[in-house]
Amino acid sequence: MEKTTAFRKEEDDGGQDREVLLDGSSNGSSGNGNGIGDGDHKHRHRATISLGGDEKGIFEFFGWVYHIGVNSIGHEYCHLRFLFIKGKYVMMFKRDPHENPGIKPIRKGVIGPTLMVEELGRRKVNDGDLYVIQFYNRLDESKKGEIACPTAGEARKWMEAFDHAKQQAEYELSRGGSTRNKLNIEADIDLEHRPRVKRYAHGLKKLIRIGKGPETLLRQTSSLGGYGTSDGYFEGQFGDAIEAHEWKCVRTINGIRILEDVADYKNGNGALVKAVALVDASADTVFEVILNLDRRKRYEWDTVTADLELIDSYDGHYDVVYGTYDPKYLTRWKSKRDFVFSRQWFRGQDGAYTILQRPAVHKKKPPRSGYRRTTINPSTWEIRSINVPMGSNIAKCLITHMLEFHTVGWLRWKKHSSSKFENTVPYALLSQVSGLKEYIGANPSLSIESSTMVVQSKLSDVSTSNSDFEDSDVHDEFYDAIAGGSSSSSEDEESEDDPNKKERKIKLKNVSWAISSLALKRASAPDVNKELDPSVPPVHFDPSQFNGSLRKGKDESDSNCWTAPSGRGFMIRGKSYLKDSAKIMGSDPLLKLIAVDWFKVDTATDKIALHPRCLVQSDAGKKLPFILVINLEVPAKPNYSLVLYYAADRPVNKSSLLGRFVDGTDMFRDARFKLIPSIVEGYWMVKRAVGTKACLLGKAVTCKYFRQDNFLEIDVDIGSSSVARSVIGLVLGYVTSLVVDLAILIEAKEESELPEYILGTVRLNRVKPESAVPLNG
User: Which of 176, 210, 692, 735 has the maximal Cβ count within 10 Å?
Assistant: First the structure.
């Protein structure tokens, strides 16, 4: 979706931009690991994470982060640092180089094709909660480093910044040139034809502010005012697979709709109810409000779970919480209640947040005298940003709070007077949505879009030219540079001369707009002659001669098996997607699923196609023109490999999108390899956790590609992402009752590549983990 930007000049009498400056002092000692920040000097910084571009198209991102880690003597450190990305180069400063011209970076490196960036979630650092981002080399995971941000929204923005830098590095490599030019990005590279670049004016320096400056960070990160919001670039629908829900509005309370899933009720699956509201705030802000355990803040919107205490936290995306409430506000009960529940959260690639809440038991909180232990209803929060009209500075998001009810109780509440339902804990939980909406409405600072764009007609005097990189001979990857330990004392002796330069600036509102439509028309079958070589006659093969360790199912009621559904249950990009974001129903896959293996392995195993047991090595397999092997490496005890084999009856057309993917670079493959999941049948909370949104696997987890002979193997290491590990752990707990559909495709980004087509599908019917066979058995 193209982004339209409105230009507006705001200058004071002296020609200066009206830029908000924050005054404050930083506390803590440098390098001792006991405080956030370093030095006792005064700061007066712009509150930015920013995006810029010089006159010739090199984009820049910069802003304040925390550099965290362990130094050479084993002490943990957490330093406030200014991070600067220009092209594919990354630099780290102790002070803002825009306000301290001539300052030299304390660390610098390049963003290469093997750099992986992973969100590790929330972590307690020096008595404050930070959101940690890890960098590592996917070929050598011992090379790694970490930075941290005060909010999930800022962490997301930095993830996008590094993704943009990787795209620019890939674009540079695709233009060819000498080895020296590949190591040092040229300032005259024309990015005008890159889809992400088209959305900005050309030939100006562009800045996008996100978040706050160092003083606000040092005051700690519990303040919820003024978060940056998403860039509004969202696809026109919330899911890419068609779900079998049938929602019916059963009540409206204080402007909040309460809906019941009639389809689940008809199927005898119990009652699933949700409250939905449109809120004037960004998804990042609402996510922070819901996760915040500060009692004073929760008292303002939460009538039930306001008194909460963190018991334990795991892997940055999962914690256990203890809470109490006084039921007299709901009923005439005299005994107080307490409860323990777990919270598991993750952010999708579209910026939407999902929070799962389930009853839990924890040894630190046994039953308490004077309290009756209550089991709260399993529930989920889903928070999705909504595109706003052009010119608006108010962010909007859709909040959905979904609860599971006992069928008998729900039917009783529906049949009797509404007052009985309004005196129940489930009603109070659903009313949290109403409380959130009113709380945010009463706090304007939570609603205002804080992200702005600044265009500068003059370049800042910052030591970031390409010649600087060439002179210093920068060849280290960024994870090497950032993981080099804490700063030395000599780094404190940097010049702090004030440039006293006034630059003329124009402030812009960073707005975007999109009109999205959902077209449920069916896609035509993929053009086989376009993707496969039309000059070669098709090879006829009998699918029954290929057998994997997981058998093919007889019908939909069969268990522990696989089938190959059509693509009609998935929504893919239509021919006009770049203009109107319209998606269409998928058609039959291009490739035929011929077998599935379900292996048990000691450790994650790559290049499985070379194993003697693999059908690729069979005589029949060697006769096939092309085989796509998808090896989904599932982390568990033991580990598993789900191997899917897709065959073509003709060789791949080298000039097609599929051909460019099969024989392309790993960076191109990572940017295009897409999977759409759908839980067709199973526990509703697993459905919400997995979702139905398309995922670029190469950006979410580590993918390795192996091209040889007549096949391409893609090894998908699900365990490489803490979020993916968390979700797959939940799935494995219910896998024997799940029916899972997967669609595999190559994302289309250019008009000539549209409409998209589905490469292959698979339906996994109630797979039993114990049925996996040893690979080396």
Answer: 210
